[in-house]
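name: query_chain
kind: protein
chains: 1
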Amino acid sequence: MARLQDRGIIVTGATGIAAAAARRFAAEGARLMIISRTDDSCEALATSIVAAGGAADAIACDLTDAQAAATALAAAIDRLDRVDGLFNVAGGSGRRLGDGPLHELTPEAYEATMRLNATTHVTATAPVLRAMLEQAPDRDGQRGAIVNMGSVLATQPVPALFATHAYASSKGALAALTTASAAYYAPHGIRVNLVAPALTISRMSERAQADEATQAFSKRKQPLTAGFIEAQDVAAAAAYLLSPEARGVTGQTITVDGGWSVLPVGE
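structure:
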């Protein structure tokens, strides 16, 4: 498949879903810029893609730093010349920042988790949107596509296992941001959608993967994948949303959950 042939795409993040997506996009012909906080991770990912015959470059940047993000995105946009797509993946668990139940949550922990998962989308997306607005429409009459990263926990909570209210709040904010921005930019030929995975194999989920109760829960709640979803499954959904095949799709959430959202917690 070459649905993304010669399309310039930025991916934020360099492990887990971001890495799987970058490899999938490159295999479909995209020209990639990878932006991640850790220099070693993004450079290693770009190098592996190039070694496999793809086109990729990398920039290390902490996207919670607005000034650093502006500089990194400007460089990425300049190197690509034209930005056809952005996949916002950068983020993570807020547990190390103090995330937890609301009655135990400090304002500092809440704000830090929001910066990690929501602010990073804003700092990456705003420069990309400005570039897309200035570039000519492609042969499909569109200027670009953006895919944000949600979570089933924003709408399908599991209090016993995931009492991380700041994280759920940040993902809910991204769902609202996706809807509002999709409506605003549709007349300009820019699409904005969101993918919402359930439990997925990644560096972020290592704690959950090692927990027997969470493993058992995932097998009951995600029967289509017999437990934790592979990162490639989420990457496939993002590839579709960034491709011309989704030219009529905006403001939507694709839930990649192995059955989670249609099965009761006790099943």
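note: Residues 107-134 form the longest helix (28 residues).
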